């Protein structure tokens, strides 16, 4: 079945972050607390995946192929938009609030990163390209976070460590980012750090949300 997903990071004053907190933080925490969430994270950390182009290769015995397919599906479930955040952001939980209209609309491109894809999840591609050690440095849960300006500054060194690469490291990460970008579109390996640095410099907070658009 087809779907369209989006992951966006937007910059806001602390007063806006405070107004979003009652809606978004409980949903983010609920997705993190889902019974399978930590199990899936720990499984991925124990056994990071090889080159994504080998995931569905037909090498090996049927049991090993089945185990690999199950592990990949678990990772995709881990990094897909969470049910609770989806319900809050698409108006299901509260018809008076829709994040596309009420938070993303009108955002300056300088203070926003957004990645929209059909049949793909931006966070999944980013996390695979980073690997679990780097991904663990990012705050929040699988792309979802709501941070005050002080928290943005506090986390900046960790985010820079996670998203800064030497030449060889960057080439390897690019090879494992399976998303296809149109001309001028930012990679998930570039946009988040740009927005984070800009927010820290401007004294703004950040809202990161991954959701299904359809």
Describe the structure.
The protein is an alpha+beta fold and 214 residues long. Helix content is 51%, strand content 13%. The protein is built from ten helices and four strands. It has helices at 14-32, 37-46, 62-79, 83-89, 99-104, 122-130, 132-135, 149-163, 167-176, 191-202, and strands spanning 4-12, 112-118, 145-147, 205-212. A four-stranded antiparallel sheet has the order 2-1-4-3, with helices on both faces. Helix 6 (122-130) runs antiparallel to helix 9 and helix 8 (149-163) runs antiparallel to helix 10 (191-202). The longest helix has 19 residues, at 14-32.
* Alpha plus pi helix count: 10
Please estimate the helix content.
40-55%
Number of strand segments: 4
Query: Going across the major beta sheet, what is the strand order?
Result: 2-1-4-3
Contiguous runs where pLDDT drops below 50 for at least 5 residues: none
Structural class: alpha+beta
Q: How big a fraction of the residues is strand?
A: 5-15%
Overall mean pLDDT stands at 94
Shape: globular
Radius of gyration based on Cα positions: 17 Å
Distance between the termini: 11 Å
Largest sheet: 4 strands, antiparallel
Order of SSEs, N→C?
Answer: EHHHHHEHHEHHHE
Notable traits:
214 residues, alpha+beta, 4-stranded antiparallel β-sheet, 10 helices, 4 strands, globular
